User: Fold these one by one.
Assistant:
Number 1:
Amino acid sequence: MCQSSRPLTSAPSVIGQSAPRADALTKVTGEERYATDYYPENHLWAGIKRAAYPHARITSIDISQAKGMVGVVAVLTSKDVQGSNRLGIFEKDQPILADGIVRHYGEAVALVTAETKEILKQALAAIVVEYEPLAAVFDPQAAMSKESVILHPGRADGNVLLSDEISCGRGVEALADCEFTAEVSIEVNWQDHAFLETEAGVAWLEADGTIAMIASTQTPFRDRLELAEALKIPPTKFRVMAPYLGGAFGGKDGITVQGFLALAALHAGGRAVKMWYEREEHFLAGTKRHPAIMKYKLGCDQQGMLQALDCSILMDTGAYSAMGGEVLELAMEHAGGPYCIPNTRIKGAVVYTNNPIASAFRGFGVPQVAAGIEQAVDELAKTAGFDLLQFRLKNAVRRGSVTPTGVLLTQTVGLSECLKKVADHRLWRERELWQNSAPAFKRRGVGLAACYHAVGFGPVIPDYANAKLELAADGHIRVFAGVSDMGQGNAATYMQIVGHILFQGYDNMEIVLPDTACTLPSCSSSASRTTFTYGNAITGAADILKERILARALLLFSFQLLEQLNVQDLVLLPGRIVHQPSGREVPLQLIAGFMDESERIATYSYTCPVNKQVLPTGKKLRHHGYPHRVFSYAVQLVRLQVDTLTGEIEVCDLLNCIEAGSVLNPQVFEQQIQGGAAQGIGYALFEDFALKEGKIRTNDFSTYILPTAMDIPNMETVVVPLAEDDGPYGMKGAGEISIDGILSAIANGVAAIIGTRITQGTLTGEKILLALRQAGKEAVR
Amino acid sequence: MEVLFPRTLEELKELFVTYPDGRIIAGGTDLLVQLRKHGNKPSALFSVEHLEQLQHVEEKETEIFIGAGVTHQQLWELPIIKNYFPVLHDAVAVLGSPPIRHSGTLGGNLCTASPAGDTLPPLYVLGAKIAISGKTGKRCVPIAEFIQGPGCTMLEQGEFVTGIQIPLPAPQAFSAYYKVGKRKALAIAIASLAVMLEVNPDETVKNIKLAWGSVGPTVMVLPEVEAFLKGKVLSDEILSQAGKMASLGVKPIDDIRASAEYRQCLTANLLLRICRD
């Protein structure tokens, strides 16, 4: 599917140049069509009857009344699903429609298609489901106990989806030798993705039996495989198209509405079906960030060198596994932070409960553990009497270092450079002035965090991309994007890379967004690997196409000049090729005319290199990504102001110092960094997700509080552009690193202001006022 | 559900006869949310956006009359509001968001009768009276009488608010509105405080009016706290003492936004803002 981008500039883009994204104008004007914007002719509306219990056995589903209603086309239950009726990546445990048991509030029980939304609503209400409620478990610690009700009977480890231990060096016993130790226990909350475009799509059955769909998905190619198994239809009988997404952040990494859409399309008599969650349904059915319970004990020697870490991480994945195992892996791999700690023991588990489903969310476990290790580092530095920044610098990993999980860092590491830049920055140097300049009834402080974030899928799951590029018959360049653009700007960056290599302007280029019928199989838009991997593939394809264009032009010039020419004498310019010695030119369109389709299309397959290290520990984590090879780094600083009368907290300034390799487009890079940091502020201070016995209490935007523009400070982004050999033009992934340290930086700043730590959940004004009261600082002028 | 657009107050009165369960829609910023959430749709909505009689602001010698259909944004832009009624100016500045302020009206905020309504505490301390019209005639009642409970006013079937009458405050009076929400914009108050203060030349309190929002079923007025402060010089200590009294006098609840205990703390602490200002 081609999109309508009208770039703001037609000038050829160059790597390193700051330029507005090619999709900016059409998004701002509303011309760009998201999945929600498709209303196929004569389409039906599809909707879901959802479970009213967190854990129950379905004893009967009476669809007779709904089925008989005028305007209702189909009422479907699990009986209408031909395949395994199971979705999932590693653990295929989630039904499309519940077959027997529901395991969380709002689980899908029946699917209805109807002529109008109004009839749909009435039909859904007319379905009568009878349940036999089962005992339910909502506390991940209780879920691990022997007495707990089991969500998925037959599993070897009860409710434990995955657990493992990483130990390095002498492990915990080294703590006993430490001169100084510090302990923190931290519980971090759930977080909702809260994207603007809720889950949506349209689907229809084509004449040849293909189920075609346009869906808001990060994973068009993987969706086909998942759907094929669940519905027992060959994967090639699905065509998935993914227009630009109106936000996703991991929440559309995998099936959301696609299973329902496919099932509905199969029973719609050839008519198209449309689904679009309302906001409340998104909260009810969508995945969330994993909450985590963490215990940290960290020790250093007299010189302040970190020596030992003992930590445990318990995550709640809710009713179904989704990406629970992979999130735990990444959390555990990053649990010790970007420091050299020779002796470690990191225990981790992720468990099933009757809570909402947790899965991928920007950061993927790292913001959680960063909140643990970075608060432990601050506490230890304070206890041992070291400067908070110098202490981090002293222990920072470098290229060639081994991480606390035993991973040898063979690729670029820019953490020390980031720390030094922050050390020299005014916001750090003037921290005492800031603290001492608080107005009446205010207290000010500075918080710091350092973090790192792995790029890609790790050693087992191939991280690949297949790029495709076409010199169209009319001479313009068609860039095929095999990976979704969920808003991060990767599609525009592919155009930038191609424009750079072929020296063509945007007016001579167009992009084709993911479509399993014409773009080539590529992995998901996720894991800070989207531009990293596809960028490598598209670079390869562009090099091939350039070579072909020049070779064909060479033949033409040779014929015109009647002599042997050298390809080095040819230059590709916007819309034309020049033979420099003679000054002769041919238009690109003419060259295209001399090529047949097989020559005009260049493809290139790229698979990322992986970390080949064989680690003696964390064996179960290997399949889920441990260990990684490439990491991005960041140091984040916040200046905070707390109101002693109300506990209200304000982030006044925010500094992101980022090493994510070279920067291809500084403007897009900075937007990514700012977006992640803003989402981190929401996670830290505002998005106080509330559950009561598995039921979400904050289920709309009047109760689930996102920060507004008024709550986000001006941010400064400082780049440390080390060139990474693995990345296209030296880049590394930058999609997640900026959310990782914000909660920990803010928590450290709050602790500096109050003198005690708030260890549970979102740092709301209410909790801060209570902490101020306990510290005798409430209403202090 | 029909949406009708009366041009005169007479037409509006007649509509209430034809559609007895009809409801007035002004900005719709509360009503449309309620209708979507609860689904009990009336047979008709009467939009007052073309009712010019509700859109005007009249400045008189000793009072001001604000038409019920005047938007928060219009109020915020009026020099007289900024100069004479800072407490109301403060409140509309932090009410909702720019789109809400451009469509929401003072009359609408009043008739929603939420204890968290940002314009309500200011109207209490300003001694506002509400002008009501209906089939039996007109009446004008003090705001504290008008508001009867959460979401509940004294309006009877067929009655509607035409405007709000507010006496001009004493020239030297200080007034302000303090709000605590869960974020800086688009926030429903967790607690708020409106203050109207006149001091004597010797800095003792001549007159003080206080009204708290979101800490009880309606806006809370505590005469005993006002009486305690009268005649005293305001200091952190005096205001803390008043705060202790106030926190015992309010009737907050626990809800999704905050606990009753936090609201009690805020009830007391917001008083200290007066001294800072």
Number 2:
Amino acid sequence: MAKFMLQRFIGMMVTMLFVSILVFIIMELPPGDYADRYVFRKYAGSGMQITESDLRNIRHELGLDKPAYVRYSKWIYGIVTRFDFGPSFAFETSANVVIGQRIWLTMAILFSTLILTYTISIPIGIYAAVRRHSIVDYSLTVFSYLGLALPNFLLALIMLYISVNVFGASVGGLFSPEFEEASWSFAKFVDLLKHLIVPAVVLAWSATALQLQTIRATMLDELNKLSVTAARARGVSEWKLLLKYPARLALNPVAGSIGFDINRIFSELPIIALVLGLPELGELLIRSFIDLDMFVAGAILLMLTFLVVVLNFVSDILLAILDPRIKLQGG
Amino acid sequence: METAENYLVKGDPLLEIKDLKVSFKTDEGIIPAVDGVNISLKRGHTLGLVGESGSGKSVSTWAVLQLLPKSAIIHKGSSIKFHCKDGESVELTDFKSKSREIRNIRGGEISLIFQEPMSSFSPVYTVGNQIMEAVRAHRDVSKEEAEGIAIDMLSRVGIPNPKRRFKQYPFELSGGMRQRAMISVALSSNPSLLIADEPTTALDVTIQAQVLNLMKELQEELGMAIIFITHNLGVIAQIADEIAVMYLGGIVEQGTRHDIFHNPKHPYTMNLLRAIPRLGKTDGGRLVAIEGQIPSPMERPSGCCFHTRCSEYMPDRCNVNIPQITQISPEHTVRCFLYES
């Protein structure tokens, strides 16, 4: 097991190295650089004439004139040694400050979505399989396909309408106005949870629908296995049997697909964030690309991929713990 | 030795199945699988159930433990009477398939082992875990005690290094080893009846012989009765005291091993015996096969089920009426018009 984890950990580090290079290439891709943008922003309309040498000076000041590999090494060195993601040109502060709270709020949305997905899909998927072809089973299927079929932004708008009109929550954002500037307290935490419900439900719906169908299908497969009949034949009670054999195996595909779920959440999140006005990373990422604020964009890309890679690692470990066949063949 | 077991005498009645009828609900309608089976088994004896695939061997024994799928119907009037270790006798058809009563019987009084030792174990738990589960389902023992019993059972079925095997997963054991482990699960609560559903079919011949010898040894040691299901007459000759030959859901002939092998009466039994390959009997050069195919249960022949393939077929009799049970000797019965007066 230790060997297996070490192998996976080294693999993870190699992945992160390639990801960082890829992120840096993406940062370099857009035509022009921040120097052009900076000049446009500062001096446009002031009637000042900007010469080519002025531009070169600004470039030198911002460190944009050095060759790419030097800038890459400097950038990575800063991140690894000082956890410094570089400056934000647009906000004229460091990228760390700009990203600051947003990374925690993004993670709050991510984890509340994941928790919601699994707490709903696992028990209900098991139940639907055991009571297959019942009314409950069919209505759950319809309900979950509804979630798959509806576009997310529409679902977000509907949920927003309901939460404002029925529950009287404030529109958008992650905090009510009175808590916006307040320091952390239990009341603020509760307020955050209230605001997390809508994005979490919207994001979790389609993931839950998929997981539910996977769990139901695996359960149906496993329920008919001879090993289950064999356990029944040795006098094990029906509930214990169900949880110990088919339900346990139905968790394997769930554990294995955590990584996919996270990917999907991250790609759907910016649209939802736009609709709901959530101060999270995806929305900032789009804005920083528009502003050519490349260190912020790079930092966000790196953090999001890091989260995906780490949670994939966790998913691998979980699967290895759940299924003894894996570590023995892989390690 | 528990005190109650001192009253248990070899040869006392153990299981009495009377007029068992089982059908399956399918999209094509109701299909009869077992049609009026009678079996009586005495304590410590071995009954061999022989027949082709689909003859209802497994269905009739799974019905005993109420293990049949939901689509199965056990008809009213069927009776499965079982005499428990405590001297009480129970009617197993009265128990619901999820009731506590039937769970106490399963594994505790009657155990079942299957054809495929690989798929009878769950791959995600150790062998030890699954034996302990069987022990703790019937005995109020601690984890440590259960582990001790499980390891003892593993060594009893001839598994070397049982402590190591206990901690291994089923896929780390060989086929023969797994079947031994399965037997140790089945016998861990000292049942009075072991139903072996083709336990040697998936094993190669040398391992087959080892497993058969093991079952015979354990029977002498523990005194349980065995119902041995197989389509292999060679296997049945080694282990069974009595033999019932099944065809299309019914027993066509029943008798002692001697009766069936040396004095077969039913044309089907005679044909089955003729189809066994024998060393040294190569004069004909070809094996005898039974004419035709086993009919689909959807289209059961009228009258005697076997008349479509029978060499002794009597028109207007075999295809019209159903033959009654004829007594050849006190232990030997046959269902065939050839012996009805």
